Amino acid sequence: MLRRGDTATAASRLGFVSGDDMIGLTRWIAALLLTATPALADTPSVSDEARTAAYMDSVAASPPRLRLFLQEMPKGGDLHNHAGGANFAEDYLRWAAADGLCLMADSYKLVGPPCEGPGRIPAAGLERDYPRYAAAINAFSTRGFEAGTGDPTVAGYDRFFSTFERFGAAYSRHVGEALTLARRQAAADHVSYLELSSGSRVAAELAAKVGGADAGDLNALYTRIAPLLPDAVRQVTADYDSYDAEMAQADGCGGTTPAPPCDVAMRYLFTALRTMPPAQVFVQLSLAFAMADTDPRFVGVNIAAPEHDPIAIRDYRLHMAMIAFLKARYPKVKLSLHAGELSLGLVPSRDLAFHIQDAVAVAGASRIGHGVDISYERDAPVLLRRMARDRVAVEINLTSNAVILGVKGAMHPLSLYREAGVPVVLSTDDEGVSRSDMTNEYLRAVTEQALGYRDLKQIARDGLQYAFLQGPSLWRDRAGGAMVAACASPDAPTCKAFLATSPKAERQWRLERELKLFEAKAR
After folding, report:
1. Do 225 and 105 share a structural domain?
2. Does one domain contain both 46 and 184?
3. Least C-beta-crowded within 10 Å: which of 4, 157, 317, 362?
4. The Adenosine deaminase domain covers which part of the protein (predicted)?
């Protein structure tokens, strides 16, 4: 039986349809197949997976029905989700009111008290002033952007990246609560593993101790930083111990009836900001590598912030060299790097030609965040083959890419990566700022990218296969293929012992069980 993706590809190659028409034809063929075989759901020889795939095809043209289906689908891991950006504007306004913060009337930026001065509005009680409350939500997010609301002269990338400075003052004293809410959202979306890009106030304090150092000699700069790292690591560890305790208390994780979020495994990628002066970026990266080498909650290192920022553009190759320098000293630390979050016209064309390449070949990234400009990379076919061969996964953020870069539908390179054999995962990026969630990312993959149920199932499995969660995989090679020898017989004592020693394999085992139950559900 033809799958939706198969029919779309065949029709496109024959020249019958293109773009959105291809997706429409796919829907029509799927519906035709279902109506032509009304007894499909009652046929004993048809697997639960096939019935589930057919059901998804039958509701794919109805986003509300598709949403109901996808909401319940087990989704593996979210590997690209930013702490802070994962939270919603309403949360920041609530925290701001509790802390006595003020809202600047002109910029809608949160600042400290006093709030009695001109142009300052107390955050407390703001919910009773709906026009300003609504404007604050819009200023803290990209709400309505894709629907065409807001100032049309403000580009998506400016609207998105301006939000963080506006709500930042409300985040610092509520990190534990923010992480709690992010984990709760993951549980609501049936995401079992969350890898949050996060940082620490300690990085800024460490940078201040180093001062205005020169980053021209990385050996000399690291020699200055290294003696300060052990104490900095202890401070970060203590902070995250307190966050863990706050999350556990909030959801009753130590009690007899823990809430569902307690079952979501959460790890962190210590993330440096690429828009700072070079020495400060190197300090952040040094602390990031030290944390990932010391604290098992930090499973890797990342670098983020607007890739089109003039400092980020100027120093991109320097940043990759910094990461390579530290990677040589911490060879076991894994890297997921934002690269290629760019589009034609956003930057000079020459800056589209090497970012993903350098992240992979110079810095040694195991995963790439975004990777949108892959088709503009110099020797892109060679790079794609290398990524496929080395299993360098790409974290796809459909809503974020549509809002920030205006890249969606047929313009998005998701199909290019998949055709090249490069592993891909779906992720949320900054779901609070984007007013999205993981279920919506899966929905967009169906409605905009013509992915079928089996495609989504592979992506859900790969969300754990390419996670940096500790331990060997449950799979010998490809996720969903043959299991490792210890689990060749699933009920064998060797399998139970293997799962007990590998957090990654244990999560993968759970996902398979959850997918089996999901597919067996009557619809």
Report:
1. no
2. no
3. 317
4. 262-470
Q: What CA–CA distance (Å, rounded) separates 207 from 281?
A: 9
Amino acid at the residue 429: D
Q: State how many domains the chain has.
A: 4
- 83 falls within a domain: no
How far is 87 from 137, CA to CA, in rounded Å?
Answer: 12
391-416 pLDDT per residue, tens: 999 999 999 999 999 999 999 999 99
pLDDT at residue 51, as a whole number: 97
Last residue of a domain, one of 139, 170, 201: 170
Asked whether residue 416 falls in the same domain as residue 489, the answer is: no
Name the strand (E) or helix (H) holding 70.
Answer: helix 63-72
Cβ–Cβ < 8 Å for 192, 76? yes
Neighbours of 350 (CB within 10 A): 10
Is 60 a domain residue? yes
Phi, psi values for residue 323, rounded to 5°: -65, -40
CB 54 within 8 A of CB 40: yes
Of 193, 231, 181, 168, nearest in space to 79 by CA: 193
Strand positions, DSSP E, 347-449? 367-370, 393-396, 424-426
pLDDT (tens digit, 9 = 90+) per residue, 134-157? Answer: 999 999 999 999 999 888 889 999
Say which amino acid occupies 87. Answer: N
Residue 43 domain boundaries: 4-72
CA 435 – CA 321 distance, rounded (Å):
35
Tokens 């940096």 locate to: 468
299 and 390 share a domain?
A: yes
Residue 283 lies inside a defined structural domain of this protein: yes
Per residue in 315-337, pLDDT (tens digit) is 999 999 999 999 999 999 999 99
> Does the residue 364 lie in any domain?
yes
Of 147, 170, 193, the position where a domain reaches its end is 170
Q: How far apart are CA 390 and CA 253, in angstroms?
A: 38
